[in-house]
Structures
1.
Amino acid sequence: MMVIFLPALRRSARVLATLALLVASGCGGIDQSGFSGDVNVLLARGAAYSASLTDRRAVNLSDVEIIAIGYLERARIGLGSPFRLIDFALSDPSLPPDVRELLAYAILSQIVRGHVYDVEPGVLDLVHLAGPRGATRAGGQQMQLIEREIASAPTATSGERAVRLGYRLAEAERTVTGVPQSVVAHVASLVSDRRRAREDVSLLLRTATQRGLD
């Protein structure tokens, strides 16, 4: 069984993340047809480990499991690069070696599934459409719009810039009101970072499969 050697993957990630190759499409699922069966198994194990932690009551968690949840939650809400978190997890002396590797695959699985750089749609509730229904909270709709635009753009960066410019133009034309530009910019940045991370990890895993890193 070919097992990916995570330190090698970690070093490769720093190089592969610079490649301008789109291998995933925004908010949709990543096509895993280029992954080896072993990669899929390892990602599934990581996802199962993550689920086993989040489904348990806090009082039943060990210190090691609480630390692991901390890593997963930081990746989910975008407190630092998920790849950097994997770096930290793999060398964390407070975690047993087997947990370090399992946690690393759990974070990789989060990236593949798009469960990183998560944003609470309610932060966009201040954005109101012009017209009689403008007072209705529409943070969820605004979030879907931002995610859709960044997903369909040629690159994550161009999508992020288009979103920022679009909201500025809409505010100038008074088709929307109450636009907190700093919040919109932050949300667009997180959503674009999510797309970049998914593209990077997809390319990383496919390259590891092709090169037979073990």
2.
Amino acid sequence: MKTLYFIGLFLLIAVAIQCCKDEPTDPCKNAKPVSADFTIYETPSGGGWEGWYDGYYTDTILHSATFKAKEDGAKYTWLIGAGVYDKQSVFLNFNGVANYESIPVTCIVEKEPNKNCFPNDDGKDTFTKNVTVAHQNPNIFGTFQAKDLDDPNKLWTFSIFDTVVGTSNYIRFDNIPVGIPRDVILNKDKFIQGYKVIVIRARVYQSGGGGRNEGFTLRYIWIGGNQFDCTYEWKIYNSKSELQSTKTYNFKATKIK
């Protein structure tokens, strides 16, 4: 009797598994109607900085941004200010825009719709977002308390300031972890600034010592409120500019004033 019971149970399980296997796949499960939605991505404007700068999605930018439609393989029409553009991705610089001005960005997409899944889709969609141009973000300048993520007992204070010498913009910073003299002022070609980020890179040439020189990169990203994620990389080169050693610090920073 037990044998018949187990055979019957096995047959029921087998039938259930087969039914699940034979269940038809919904062809519209992952389908979407034509959409003109797009992303706003703050990016540098060239000058050899690509790869040094980690861009990010945002609705507030400092100077420049890339707008990219999410829909692939479509006809695109962008209306941004007085400009009209027809690529999936558009990069623009907004240096001439007033501080904290909001600009409407409209994307129009046309594409053959999936009538099987969306019989009422006409294949056209329009999406508008505003991008705010803020030529300065006061949150990313000031004095910060830093904590090394690899050595939580290591704490220090550093400062970064935006300054003007004559008619040129500079960045001054003080007490970065190692290697940099105090009160260093760098010309604007040594750093790139986004609304949420500063990336600094430079060489410091030492007098004497066989022509040794040192270089650094600081990626410094505002994550909201008074909190920042930072990566600091210090490199030692010989007189032939050959890399001798590298030290990397990953740390969290809290703005204290």
3.
Amino acid sequence: MRKWLLNLLWICILGGSRVLYFWNAGKTVADTYGYFEQAVERAWENGTVSWAGLGDAYIWTLSWLFRLMGDRIELVGVYQLTLQILWLILLFAGASMLLGRRAGFLLSGVLMILPWSMPTIFVVSPENYYMLHFSLFLVILGAFCSKKKNHRVTEMTAAGSENKKMERLPETGSDKAATENKEAGKNKETTQEGQEQLQQAVEKEEGYVITEDGRRVKLFDNPLPLPPKHVKKNMGFDFKVSKDDFDYQVEDRDDFDV
């Protein structure tokens, strides 16, 4: 509720600032680029008119405005004021949905006080009409992204709740039977392995061995004469040997280098 009140207050500020500027500016609407004259001519023409972009669409909206309320240039000023208030509000909404509320406040606030945007109210030109379409595009894009994000969050929440339910569900009869069968199989395998190991140990003690291919073979002593087992011996001498000293002692007066 607080967010909606803040958004509503900001919208009132956007619209009120433009109305106050329009009321106190003391300017007259100028047809600088000839759009007013073209719209007046098209308002009273008969037949189909070809369009060539948003500029022609802007002239077409002016012509219908003149047909309904008369071809007064002051009316165009009110129309320009309405367009500018609308695109400021839509820009705030689109930027908030795409980038967050702070970005929406910042972007719309900067464009609200920008010196370029205010004088366009008193000039018959399609700048505000262009900005209206751009802001509308941002709103559509923001709505699409928000919907996609909410759908993703919903899927993640649903998946998490399903996992929790599966963890909390008690085991059924079939699950218990499967668990018991697995435990019985493991116990049986363990028992068989223990019996095989015990049988192998007994057979080894009796002189039997089990080969790799599963054959049971009994070992016997070799009847052939064998050399005696090697006994390690330490080799030495019966007498002590003095340390060899190969240095020849000479007298001090023997100088061989002279």
